[in-house]
Design a protein that fits this description.
The protein has a single domain, classed as Isochorismatase-like (Rossmann fold, 3-Layer(aba) Sandwich), CATH 3.40.50. About 20% of the residues lie in helices and about 25% in strands. It has four helices and eight strands. A six-stranded parallel beta sheet has the order 5-2-1-6-7-8. A two-stranded antiparallel ribbon has the order 3-4. Helix 4 links the parallel strand 7 and strand 8. Helix 3 runs parallel beside helix 4. The N and C termini lie close together (about 10 Å). It binds pyrazine-2-carboxylic acid (VGL) and zinc ion. The site of zinc ion has 6 residues, from loops.
Length: about 200
């Protein structure tokens, strides 16, 4: 059975937000149209406490984009974003949520970041997403959302590791591109791992 997995389509990742992804809003109508083709839809939500250690502001003297070591993992420092209960953490108002079965929140542990919708970056904790999909006999996952070079990429890679057939809908994702070739490199990395890249109009279920 097929599932649509919508990653982090939240105000802070959209134009005007704290960690805005260029043209991120362009994927909203594409995702809404795509939702009509699916019966099983779940979403992830970046959901940080204000004291989260991925925020540059919580490291005096450090700047956005600096890389530090956090609990043994390389950590990019981000602007304050997706703080629990704030408008920035909310889903975009035009994103249709009527058919969503469940939202999986991530990044709640203040000392570990969590890009993937399945596991935190240290792989010690999981969100329950994998069990939830397996329990509902989901075999094929179609992934959309933000950002292609961070949360979408790591969600895709984990979905493959968890045994799903994974499709990335390329016109329903956009990248942060801290470096200009981040999107291209991410697509290459995901392809090597076995993701199927396709555009939304190619999806006939
Ligand atoms: C994300 C950076 C920090 C994402 C979340 O959703 O891609 N990126 N937190
Ligand atoms: Zn985050």
């Amino acid at each position: 059975m097929n599932a649509l997995l919508i990653v982090d389509v939240q105000n802070d990742f959209l134009p005007g937000g704290a960690l805005a992804v260029d043209e991120g809003d362009q994927i909203i109508p594409v995702i809404n149209e795509l939702q009509e083709k699916f019966d099983f839809i779940v979403a992830t939500q970046d959901w940080h406490p204000a004291i989260h250690k991925s925020f540059a502001d919580n490291h005096p003297g450090k700047m956005i984009g600096d890389i530090i070591c956090l609990k043994g993992e390389e950590q990019v420092l981000w602007p304050v974003h997706c703080v629990q209960g704030t408008e920035g953490a909310d889903f975009h108002k035009d994103l249709n949520r009527k058919k969503w079965k469940k939202v999986f929140q991530k990044g709640t542990n203040p000392v570990v970041d969590s890009y993937s919708g399945f596991y935190d970056n240290s792989r010690r904790e999981n969100t329950g997403l994998s069990d939830y999909l397996h329990d509902h006999d989901i075999t094929d996952v179609y992934i959309v959302g933000l950002a292609a070079d961070y949360c979408v990429k790591f969600t895709v890679l984990d979905a493959i590791k968890e045994g799903f057939d994974v499709n990335l809908v390329t016109d329903a994702t956009k990248a942060v591109n801290l470096s200009p070739d981040d999107l291209e490199n991410s697509l290459k990395e995901m392809s090597k791992s076995g993701v199927n890249l396709l555009s939304s109009d190619e999806i006939t279920l």
